Every structure is written in structure tokens, then in C-alpha cells.
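Revision sheet: C-alpha cells.
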Amino acid sequence: MEYVDETAAKIMVAARPGDSIRRIAQKIDGSYSWVYDWIERLEDAGFIRREDGIYIEKYAVRDRYYDLVAAISRAVPPSIDDAYVIPHFAGMPFAYTKIDAVYVWTHGGYQIARGHDDYPIFIQVADQDVERWTAFFDEFGIPSRIQERPDATDSDAPVSYVLFPTSGEITREWVDGNPVIPLDETIEHMLEYRVNYEPALEMIADEYDRDIDASHEDPRLNA
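Predicted:
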């Protein structure tokens, strides 16, 4: 029973072959030191091994952790923080996109068009994986839709997912442990809907040294 622990479960379910301890800690939004301690314990138990990265040794144990996490998610809707962890459990490539690409690239500094009681998360997925993603979110009891925002009145769960299938390879970068569409694509999306993203464009321009004419100052102040 000493291994029936939230961090242990998240590590076992989120880890992918070759992941570093830091990558796993970022995926599950945990402290490096606490994840490191648990990985040592899981290795001592023979559940994982460390060999130029982390590898699962006991997939039967991993599957039981997965079943436990899914059952809890069905019983208790996940928090917004956990909702950014859950896609890492699917074992399929994805990248945060649209609103969430901006959210990730600004390190959570820019938020728009959602609240705590209606919080869709936007992810890019491969065409061939769409049915598996839908089944995955169903298993976790979380609403999902393809290219459209779920109606908040259809479910009591505050969190939902919007899937954007792509026929090409998912090109992604890692920011704070989150896979996200490239910065150039994110900027293109922001410029297309510039009125919504002007403050975020200024943040991006400053942090990433991009030549973007962006300012969210009220022009009336200079009138």
C-alpha cells in the first residue's frame, strides 16, 4: 500500500521511454526533488529502471495505476492543473494549440475566453489517433469535441478538450514540460485574431526577441 500514491501513479502513467526525471516532473507538474525520490522508490521496487532515461519495467503495474487514475477522474472531475497533466497519460503525440499555445508560450501569463467553470483545452492530434483520443477522454469521464468547443451545459465537468486533427506530422516544441505547436505557428494564430492577443503579442515579442509591432496601450492616452 505504500505505493498507492498520487505522485507514484502519475509517474508510472506519464513516463515515456527515455524521459528524464526533469521531463517527468514537468509533465506531472511536480517538484523535481519529490519526483526524484519517488523514482528511486519505484526503481527499488522493480517497477521502473534508469538507463539513460526512465523506462517502465512492470507494465502490469503501470496499467493498474492507469485504471486507478481513470476511475478517480470519472468520480471526481479533474482540476484545471490536472487537466494539463492528463493528456500525457494517453501515450499518443499531441501539442497544445490555439488559445493553449499562447497560454504555454507565455508560461501561463495570458488567458482568454474561458473561466474556472468552463475551461476547454485545445490540443492538436494526429488524424489516425482521433478515435483513440475520444475513447481516452471518455474513459476519464471528460467531454471532448473535434474542432468545436463543447457546450458547458452538457456536462458538470468544468474541463473539456477540443481536438484539432492534422494529417501531417505533429511538430512540437517543449515549454515548461508541455508539448506545444512551434512559436511561429502560435504567432500566426495570434496575428489572425490580433484584437484578442495584443497584450500577449507584446509579451512574446519581449521574451523571445521577435520583431512584432505590438502594444496594448490605450491609444486614447496619447490623444
